[in-house]
Design brief:
By secondary structure, the protein is an alpha+beta fold. The chain is built from three helices and nine strands.
């Protein structure tokens, strides 16, 4: 009669099995977290600012700049649609500059309805801010709505409103930055910027 010999796994084999199972769990958990993060996304749109957007460099973090701009919009009476300091993004509602009130879409007087957007990003120890004012040139559900937006010409009431917001923000940032650092807080470039095509 033959007796079967039962081999006990060594401590090293058990340790390798445990480590392998633990690594598999960690990989699965990491993948789950990444998928959840991708599904959640953020509020900042995938497209960038308009090529004619106003550009400024400020010596404050992007989150602080965004918060200051949010306060500035409220001060000039422009309702905020989206404000996310962590993403450096701020967007107003559609605003009728002729009637001085917010409006919803669709609207007919395209030239007098504007939206303001602000994109703030870290850049070489500073914050690079792009500020835009856009109008819709048409309503066409078959076309991506961003493709139907344009910066109005200089002197347009929407551009005046944008300048007012930046002026209020500049005064607020100047006071705050001068108190913190004792130095000049920003540089402003009103020359239209040239960049590649925006994302979808």
């Amino acid at each position: 009669m033959t007796t079967a010999r039962i081999r006990r796994p060594s401590a090293a084999s058990v340790s390798r099995l445990v480590r392998g199972a633990w690594c598999a769990v960690r990989r699965e958990t990491l993948v789950t977290l990444l998928l959840a993060a991708c599904a959640t996304g953020g509020v900042r749109p995938r497209f960038g600012p308009e090529p004619q957007a106003v550009m400024m460099l400020l010596d404050l973090p992007a989150s602080v700049v965004t918060e200051s701009l949010t306060t500035s919009l409220v001060r000039v009476g422009l309702p905020v649609r989206t404000s996310e300091p962590r993403e450096g993004y701020l967007e107003s509602v559609w605003f009728d500059v002729a009637a001085h009130r917010p409006t919803g879409d669709p609207f007919s007087r395209l030239d007098s309805i504007v939206k303001l957007r602000f994109f703030a990003d870290p850049a070489f120890g500073h914050t690079r801010l792009f500020a835009e004012c856009v109008v819709r040139v048409a309503w066409d559900p078959s076309v991506p709505q961003r493709d139907l937006e344009r910066m109005p010409p200089a002197g347009h009431p929407g551009r005046v409103l944008l300048d007012s917001v930046l002026t209020v923000m500049t005064r607020h940032v100047v006071r705050d930055t001068t108190t913190r650092t004792g130095g000049p807080p920003l540089r402003r470039d009103t020359t239209p910027t040239r960049r590649g095509p925006s994302g979808p």
